[in-house]
Amino acid sequence: MASRLFPVMPTTSLLLSAYASLSTSFVLFQTVFNQLVPPQLRGYIIDVVKCYWKHKTSDQLTLLFEERDRRNLNDMFYAVEVFLSTKITADSKRLK
Prior knowledge:
Layout: H1 12-36, H2 39-53, E1 68-69, E2 72-73, H3 75-85
Antiparallel strand pairs: 1-2
Protein name: P-loop containing nucleoside triphosphate hydrolases superfamily protein
Domain AAA-type ATPase N-terminal: 37-96
GO molecular function: hydrolase activity
């Protein structure tokens, strides 16, 4: 299964060789990093990297229930409507 990125499918030995090279490079970098960087600076760098790659999540959740699913009525919409009518008033803009 070739693609535009790889016009010719790489061989298994080529893929294993690339994997071994990447693994070795990572282990070498980790060893040098742990031996040469002081623990305090190492902790700071790790925290910065974690903060950069951390998933941006929100404490709010939005659920959208459509009244119709193409031509069919959505039973979930009416169930939610009945349930929420007991929990909120007509002038409410948000649920907590």
